[in-house]
Design brief:
By secondary structure, this protein is α/β, with parallel strands linked by helices. It folds into 2 domains: 40-175 and 277-290, Roll (Diaminopimelate Epimerase, Chain A, domain 1), CATH 3.10.310.50; 181-270, no CATH class. Helices cover 50% and strands 11% of the residues. It is built from 8 helices and 7 strands, in the order αβαβαβββαααααββ. The protein has a 5-stranded mixed beta sheet, sandwiched between helices. It starts with a helix and ends with a strand.
Length: 291
């Protein structure tokens, strides 16, 4: 009887070991679908609509001014497994960064486990090192999230990442409480004005593009743009404002179909506002933290 029980326990232990070694029986991390618009997915709902729009406007503006980095943001209520593995899976499946440049950066915040991760691709690590990623996590994200200042933390983190990637140095203490309150208030007010201008301009250009689409469809009932084509036209008109821009969607559409890269968000000397451009090279760079 004892021998039978021992054999049963041994078989169960062996089966458990096999499951661990093969990875079966454990919950595997699954990446959510990327945001349909913009570069921010607030699945944990810690941002207001306006805060999300302003954060995305900031990322798009930085993407159009530099190709040193492409940043995306994800908040979740519960990531499956270690946050390092989860962030790497999401960054890879979302293809954060530009194709061949490996310049993607993904900020992940798990609000249930209170964990944070800045995942960096191999190319961007040449300028934005793992030590600097750790500084962003420890000095910016952790204190902000601990105080439930989610928008402030994410905004400052995005700003610092682009500065590092461009070879610049951010302020030594982004939450410098030792500075006079008037200076801090002036900095916050100035940044708020800049973001507000970006958001207003983006909305105005979007309305203009939508009016052009509506006029073209009224003039030609056979013209039907898909949602993807509409968004591509909006991005095209945002980046092409001079006299040589194509302002008639009916004329733009065949050009876009023939060359989507040229007649969408990008332009000569200007990069697209999107951070999802076929990037890769996520081998475990970055830093993690908790709050």
């Amino acid at each position: 009887m004892r021998g039978t029980r021992t054999q049963g326990i041994g078989a169960a232990a062996a089966a458990t070991l096999l499951l661990v070694l093969t990875g079966c029986g454990s919950e595997s991390a699954t990446a959510p679908a990327p945001p349909t618009q913009g570069n921010v997915l607030d699945a944990a709902e810690v941002l207001t609509d306006q805060q999300e729009q302003e954060l995305n406007a900031l990322i798009e503006d930085r993407n159009r001014s530099t190709d040193a980095a492409r940043v995306a943001v994800l908040t979740v209520e519960n990531a499956s497994g270690p946050i390092e593995d989860y962030a790497r899976i999401v960054a890879t499946e979302w293809e954060v960064g530009d194709d061949g440049a490996n310049n993607g950066v993904l900020i992940v915040a798990d609000t249930a486990e209170r964990e944070l991760r800045v995942e960096t691709a191999d190319g961007v690590r040449e300028q934005f090192s793992d030590d600097e990623a750790e500084d962003v996590v420890e000095d910016v994200l952790e204190p902000a999230f601990a105080d439930e200042e989610y928008a402030q933390g994410l905004t400052e983190a995005v700003e610092q990442i682009y500065l590092y990637a461009d070879g610049q140095e951010p302020p030594s203490d982004p939450f410098a409480w030792v500075l006079p309150a008037s200076i801090v208030g002036a900095m916050v007010a100035f940044f708020g004005i800049v973001v507000a201008v970006i958001v207003r301009d983006s909305r105005r250009r979007r309305r203009l593009a939508d009016e052009e689409i509506r006029a073209a469809e009224e003039a030609d009932p056979d013209l039907h743009l898909t949602d993807e084509q509409r968004e591509a036209y909006r991005k095209y008109r945002y980046n092409h404002r001079k006299d040589d821009a194509v302002t008639n969607p009916a004329l733009w559409l065949p050009l876009y179909i023939a060359n989507p890269a040229l007649y969408s968000g990008g332009s000569s000397g200007t990069t697209s506002g999107s951070s999802f451009n076929g990037g890769g090279g996520f081998t475990g760079g970055g830093a993690s933290g908790s709050y």
